[in-house]
Amino acid sequence: MLVEKITSRQNPLVKRFRRVRAGGERRMILLEGVRLVEEAIRAGAHFESVAFTSEIETTDRGLALLDALRKVRCRGAQVTRQIMDIFSDTEAHQGVAAIASRPRYESEDVFARAPQLLVIADRLQDPGNLGAIIRTAEAAGATGLITTPDTVDPFNHKALRASMGAALRLPLATHIPCNEIARLCREHQVISFATRTRPARTSGVIEDASRAETIRIYTEVDMTAPVAFILGREASGVSSEAMLQTEGLIHIPMANEVESLNVAAAGAVLLYEAARQRNFCFGKNEKGEYKQPLPK
Fold it and tell me: How large is the angle between the packed helices 127-139 and 263-277, nearest 10 degrees?
């Protein structure tokens, strides 16, 4: 990393950081903070530019990060705190930010890993929720995540921060139409389940008159087979378009006084039930499959 000093707000690199932060460069993402930059290095991300202040050199962790960045082929700039404030999203920034290439996966790539455990984020709007879902999905051994159109970008800087770097590692395909997702599920024999808000009863199988189908309690569903969970928008749930493509409806029982769970919490419940049924088999074997069990 070649380092230059920048003190002017009009410098083209400062303007580029601001443009990337605002979402004006679709192929690039903004990484802010020590943790995200560290995770990007570990994930083998392609860095374009790095900006840092002298504050990064006041901690051992910051010095170690700078040492690692010196081995990265990219443009580096030491900037003032005032300049870092311009493209920082947090009031108490950690004195480092970077522009990196956006990870790119096609929808077929997300289905390539076996045994499939997928999350389909359908029109989610809160970047914090989506980032939390991505973080939990990776932790529970999910093999990928797909977003439908009108879903917030998982590489939005707020979603990235909430994912704690998981979005840089978990295969993500974005803005995939529901009918295309359904086609891929059929092709790869992945059973898709849509989550529903409270039905009429809270135990056993429950009739859903609107579809003349049964809603199953999530613990009664076999999740050892390839499965995909469709998680809907925070306020309105799974869209009608996505609902038409699903193969089953599942429900998480709740106390009578509770109307619904936060979508990230619901995703965590489902993902960890799948992980439990799969004996918490995390990690990849030589075929790239998530089959290695946790140590006893």
Answer: 10
Global pTM value: 0.87
What are the phi and psi torsion angles at 139 (to 5°)?
Answer: -65, -35
Render pLDDT for 12-36 as a digit per residue (tens, 0 to 9).
999 999 999 888 888 999 999 999 9
Domains observed in the chain: 2-101 (3.30.1330.30), 107-277 (3.40.1280.10)
**Residue 6 phi, psi dihedral angles, 5° rounding:** -125, 125
CB contact burial 215-236 (16+ within 10 A = b; e otherwise): bbbbeebebeebbbbbbbbeee
In 248-272, which positions are buried (b, 16+ CB within 10 angstroms) versus exposed (e)?
ebbbbeeeeeeebbebbebbbbbbe
Residue with token string 């920034």: 93
Give residue-wise pLDDT tens across range 195-254. Answer: 876 554 444 444 454 443 578 999 999 999 999 999 998 788 899 999 988 888 999 999
